[in-house]
Design a protein that fits this description.
Elements lengths: L1 E6 L7 E5 L8 E10 L2 H8 L2 H5 L6 E2 L3 E9 L11 E4 L2 E2 L5 H4 L10 E2 L11 E5 L3 E3 L6 H5 L1 H11 L9 E4 L3 H12 L5 E4 L3 H10 L3 E4 L6 H8 L5 E6 L4 H10 E9 L11 H6 L4 E4 L7 H12 L8 E6 L3 H9 L5 E5 L2
């Protein structure tokens, strides 16, 4: 038996339960979870809101998908990892046979499943995932760093979607992925980097990440005017939207320079109205939708960045909780009173 965070029904809340350890198939890996991290989707599942229905989330379920752990058993067909390896989990479970999977787009598989949403997740002492989703980490990787590889690779995917070195870059939303994006953009040569959020606690974290970060709060700063003033009137070369806010998205398009690019990563809860003619057509703007990580280019890029010693994610990991206090961790993240909340499991 093992302890796990269980979402028993659609009512608000979670509970800690004693459940049987997972049993693996020939193509799966059993992992002793060392550390995990709270994601926005865990907050959705905790509250069971419309997002859960939109993605057809399973219920009941063990939640959690950002994690790091030690391989303790492998199926008979597994060859990519072995017992004793330290791994992080790729959240997206691809079918492997659809046109998208067969053409290098596994992360947007036509029949994709998500760990901790459609299959039992990692807020537990043990979890199982398909072999393809187990990314082997350097053996000396701290467990809390291993646990945030998954969200870190989302930032890598968005920031490195195209040229970033020497580009003025505006990042809307300084939640954990936004903070990782600020760090990646700065390390990869973007300058200046505008970190934009209404949460001053997180803006202070953003300023710790690099000397070229300009922290702005739309509640008191004239964002568009400031960005254009710092870019000789042109506007930002690159905009990365991580707030999931219609207002932030509109502002992002407004301050984007002509022929600039914008990456939409944040998940919006309602439709966004835009002035397409002036902000896309006449600007000849490049617009990217970005979800998850490219399998596995984003992972290799993330590992190289981590190994470079130039990335500072420690300042983003502000709170730790034991497994038994997962509810407190989720509520702390929901209130925006932390950077990334880590759950220490074993």
């Amino acid at each position: 038996m093992m302890k796990a965070v269980y979402k028993a029904d659609r009512s608000k809340g979670i509970e800690i339960r004693e459940l049987p350890e997972p049993v693996i198939s020939d193509n799966e890996v059993l992992i002793k979870v060392r550390s995990a991290a709270v994601c926005g989707s865990d907050i959705h599942l905790y509250n069971w809101n419309d997002w859960c229905d939109n993605v057809h989330a399973k219920n009941p379920i063990i939640i959690g998908h950002e994690f790091c752990g030690e391989v303790v058993d492998v199926g008979s067909n597994v060859s990519l990892v072995k017992t004793g390896d330290l791994v992080a989990g790729e959240t997206h479970i691809p079918c492997g046979t659809c046109m998208l999977c067969r053409t290098g787009k596994q992360h947007i598989c036509q029949d994709m499943k998500i760990v901790g949403v459609h299959t039992d997740g990692a807020f537990a002492q043990y979890t199982k995932i398909p072999e393809i989703c187990a990314y082997k980490l350097p053996a000396d990787t701290p467990h809390d760093i291993g646990a945030i590889y998954e969200p870190f690779t989302i930032a890598v995917h968005g920031v490195l979607k195209d040229k970033i070195g020497g580009c003025s870059t505006a990042i809307f939303g300084c939640g954990p992925i936004g903070l990782f994006a600020v760090n990646v953009a700065s390390v990869c040569g973007a300058s200046p980097v505008f970190a934009i959020d209404i949460n001053d606690y997180r803006l202070k974290i953003a300023q710790k990440l690099s000397d070229n970060v300009i922290a702005l709060n739309p509640h008191r700063d004239k964002i568009v005017e400031i960005v254009k003033d710092k870019t000789k009137g042109y506007g930002a070369d690159v905009v990365i939207e991580l707030a999931g806010s219609p207002e932030a998205t509109r502002m992002g398009f407004e301050l984007l320079r002509k022929s600039g690019r914008i990456c939409i990563i944040g998940l919006h809860s309602r439709e966004v109205s835009l002035d397409f003619v002036n902000n896309i057509t006449y600007k000849e703007a490049t617009v990217y939708g970005v979800t998850g990580r490219e399998m596995f280019e984003s992972w290799y890029q993330a590992e190289n960045l981590m190994q470079s010693g130039k990335i500072n994610v420690k300042d983003v990991l502000t709170h730790e909780f034991p497994l038994e206090e997962t509810e407190k961790a989720i509520l702390t993240a929901q209130e925006g009173k932390c950077g990334k909340a880590i759950i220490k499991i074993s």
